[in-house]
Specification:
The chain has 3 domains: about 140 residues, NAD(P)-binding Rossmann-like Domain (Rossmann fold, 3-Layer(aba) Sandwich), CATH 3.40.50.720; about 130 residues, no CATH class; about 70 residues, Rna Polymerase Sigma Factor, Chain: A, CATH 1.10.1740. It contains 15 helices and 11 strands. The strands form 2 sheets. Strands 4-3-2-1-5-6-7 form a 7-stranded parallel sheet, with helices on both faces. Strands 9-8-10-11 form a 4-stranded mixed sheet, covered by helices on one side. The N and C termini lie far apart (about 50 Å).
Amino acid sequence: MKNVAILGSTGSIGRNSLEVIKNLPEQFRVTYLTANKNIDLLQKQIAQVHPRGVVVLDPCNASVLRKVLDETTEVHSGEEGLLEVVRRADVDIVISSLVGFAGLAPTIEAVKHRKTVALANKETLVVAGQLITSLVKEYRVRLVPIDSEHSAVMQCLVGEDPSHVAKLILTASGGPFLNRPVEDFDAITVEEALNHPNWSMGKKITIDSATLMNKGLEVIEAHWLFDLPPERIEVVIHPQSIIHSMVEFIDGSLKAQMGLPDMKIPIQYALTYPARSPMNGRRIDFAELSSMTFFKPDRKKFRSLQIAYDVLSLGGTTPAAMNAANEVAVDAFLDRKISFKRIPELIEKAIVSHKGVSSPDLKDIVETDASTRKYVRSLI
């Protein structure tokens, strides 16, 4: 029996994680849940899984929750609450699914306390990939990706010699604006951008998918997870989202991991790795699958993807600046303060103005994040 802490339990990954764990009661027990502000849903989750404690990032909401829960459930608040939970002895696995930069500090703390980390927060590796991978080696912990693309690559690499890998091929659905002319991007509404054709996800990641920044973040994440340079990490548009990623080997053969677009599959694999457990759900019916298509992404139309490749080559604190600028720009778009088209424009301006540190420590990364956010907000 493994004890699990879910960071971000009210989000899409958190909700799916609870569904997975519910179906594997003899293998996993939820000991801690964390949320930002959605205490109504958090209360329902508490009633379902009876965790030993919860963390609410917003202190006011934490105070409200303390008044309605009995004393058997601990209630912590803020970032210190997150750090406290991942240190606990009654946590074996930390599902890190907080949105954005907020996931960095608790992920580092989990690694330092030798927890297995099931990582859904791609921004952690984007902003601090060198630091995280060094800590993972130092503390000899297991870092398992939850992202469907990186889970797919990991599954394709089982039993393979890493030196035999020629390149990784990450698939992308192309998002809701795959066939929309770039000239019309100024008119894109928030509602249109949130209408993803294949996946049901949180707002931030859905907007990132619409700009293809999400795929750019995944390229950077793949670089750190699988130790390959950017020129050996390829992105291909695959609108049906059946193949989640592929690995090409030096002899020209390819492995692909396939499945319906259901996040419960990579979540369960991350929890049970290297084993597999039965899962109920729909399966691919190849007789009904009319076609699978593939083509190159347009990096001029979707500039965010090219920005991510450029930033990966620059390294240092530049990825942290890109990530901070993107988070602020996406929030501004969701708040209807800027147009969809301005998201990559703001990111590029932030990168140009950034004075990078080539070998950053955590302090450098945190300072880059704060200063970049301030700069982009001033532009908005």
